[in-house]
Specification:
Rossmann fold; six-stranded parallel sheet; 48% helix
Length: 187
């Protein structure tokens, strides 16, 4: 999925934010494909543990992210930062990015996270949302259980439609809640 946006990752410098299960899987895959992986995490020991099991990998804390991003070809957010309901959170702002960066946020709800909006503001042309990763995970599970390869395009369309509907409903509920609070304050 990442390679469809950037081509070969061999020799690419990839900064992965997070050191949980998804970050670990992404790091192992990218390192095996020849990428130069750096794992940044708030708990440096967790990042170090993953990096120690990989070739061409290093680790760091979340301080000096701007410097690490400046050196990166690809930025992967493998944290839950920015996921619903905390949709305005991000570890990286537009000022920290360069336009040649590829930004992949594995968060899928909302589809367009604050990180992806910040990347757009920074002039980043290649931005990848988390829907494809969710779809590929679901498709792999479906195949394991049924032996059938599902149609990825149909699955992706269904996921995007469901997320759009859920996000519209959440926005409507938030507006209604805000109006109720406003009315209560006026009394």
């Amino acid at each position: 999925m990442l390679e469809s946006a950037v081509g070969s990752v061999k020799g690419k410098r990839v900064l992965i934010l997070g050191a949980g299960g998804a970050a670990k899987a992404i790091a192992f895959y990218l390192a095996s494909a020849g990428a130069l992986v750096k794992i940044a995490n708030r708990t440096i020991e967790r990042a170090a543990e993953i990096a120690s099991k990989l070739e061409n990998a290093s680790y760091t804390g979340l301080d000096n992210l701007e410097r690490h991003i400046a050196d990166a070809d690809i930025l992967v957010n493998a944290t839950s930062v920015g996921m619903y309901p905390k949709i305005e959170e991000t570890l990286v702002t537009a000022e920290m990015m360069h336009s040649d960066l590829v930004v992949f946020d594995i968060v899928y709800n909302p589809v367009e996270t604050r990180l992806l909006r910040e990347a757009k503001k920074a002039g980043v042309k290649r931005r990848i949302d988390g829907v494809k990763m969710l779809v590929f995970q679901g498709a792999a599970s479906f195949k394991i259980w049924t032996g059938i390869s599902p149609p990825l395009d149909v699955m992706e369309s269904a996921v995007r439609k469901a997320l759009q509907s859920a996000n519209s409903k959440a926005k409507s509920e938030a507006k209604s809640e805000a109006k109720s609070k406003e009315s209560a304050l006026e009394r």
